[in-house]
Design brief:
Shape: globular
Order of helices and strands: HHHHHHHHHH
Largest sheet: none
Helix content: over 70%
Number of helices: 10
Number of domains: 1
Distance between the termini: 23 Å
Length: 307
């Protein structure tokens, strides 16, 4: 069940990326699009938390834990890391292209998730680095490389934005671990999501202000309502991932989520492609390879557990 949820919210992430990407084009500013996504997600989760007594209690528990130092600053910084990811995406993608950014993020995310599990950042405790887990992470990295390979012709190697993508990939896996830690205290995923959106929006606001002071502009908001639904999908991702991360561990979650993103990309590029040729053999093969590697690694782990 938890594995299926991880894949499904990967599909949600793919849909959110498509929506936020279109809003970025319409506004001519990636950070403005990110702020819209954060703001709408935060507004929705605020309404849901206010309407639900248990979610309000969960949010109060988070604030009490912070006040009593049961949760310290680094444990509640998941939202800040998420905001850094969005800001870095807006800065790096125009310089190095989508393909290099994607593979760099996945590299940082998959490798660091091994160590996040080993360090026991999530509330579920420490998980050893084994040969099968390492092989699964490596296979996922190769599969994503194959999936984005056609876009490498539009990429340009630049060290600083490439390093930035690697770092925010590390941030992404750490964020999942921290969200699991906060949710262990709140015991309510929407309360955890509220904290994420509130703190992440701060980083995006600061980045957008710097962007505007540097001479960037924002076009008039578009009339298409669907381009404003990215925040809702982001809320689904944060809330569900905070709930299931304890049961899967960060590495398993990351690999399953990446598989879902690739499956979602195939579906979206088939039904509503952002550009001609988006759906191709590389993407389909990379997606198939990811699913196959997950199946093999889970079978291997199951046999090892039984023995």
């Amino acid at each position: 069940m938890f594995a299926i949820l991880a894949v499904l919210i990967g599909v949600v992430v793919a849909a959110q990326s498509r929506i936020n990407g279109q809003l970025s084009v319409d506004l001519n500013n990636g950070l403005a699009a990110a702020l819209v996504s954060f703001a709408t997600g935060w507004l929705l989760v605020s309404i849901l938390v206010l309407m639900n007594k248990r979610e309000r209690s969960g949010l109060q528990e988070i604030f009490s834990a912070i006040k009593e130092k049961r949760l310290v600053f680094w444990e509640i910084s998941g939202g800040f890391l998420g905001g850094c990811y969005v800001a870095a995406q807006s800065i790096a993608v125009p310089q190095i292209g989508v393909a290099l950014f994607t593979i760099s993020v996945v590299a940082g995310q998959t490798v660091s998730s091994l160590f996040v599990d080993k360090a026991g950042i999530t509330s579920s405790g420490k998980v050893k680095i084994t040969a099968s887990r390492t092989a699964g992470a490596f296979a996922t990295l190769i599969a994503v490389f194959i999936a984005v390979y056609p876009d490498f012709s539009n990429s340009e190697f630049r060290f600083v934005p490439l390093l930035m993508a690697l770092v925010v990939g590390v941030f992404a896996s750490v964020q999942q671990g921290l969200n699991g830690r906060v949710n262990a205290v709140a015991k309510r995923p929407l309360a955890t999501a509220w904290l994420n959106f509130a703190t992440g929006a701060m980083i995006v606001v600061i980045a957008l202000l710097i962007n505007l002071l540097s001479g960037a502009e924002i076009k008039a908001p578009p009339n298409n309502f669907w381009v404003y639904t990215g925040g809702t999908l982001g809320l689904v991702f944060v809330a569900v991932s905070a709930y299931i991360i304890k049961h899967l561990g960060v590495l398993n979650f990351v690999i399953l989520n990446i598989a879902g993103q690739l499956v979602g990309a195939v579906i979206i590029d088939w039904l509503a492609p952002a550009k001609a040729g988006s759906l191709n053999g590389y993407l389909i093969f990379g997606t198939t390879m990811t699913i196959a590697s997950i199946a093999v690694s889970r079978i291997f782990e199951a046999r090892k557990t039984k023995s």
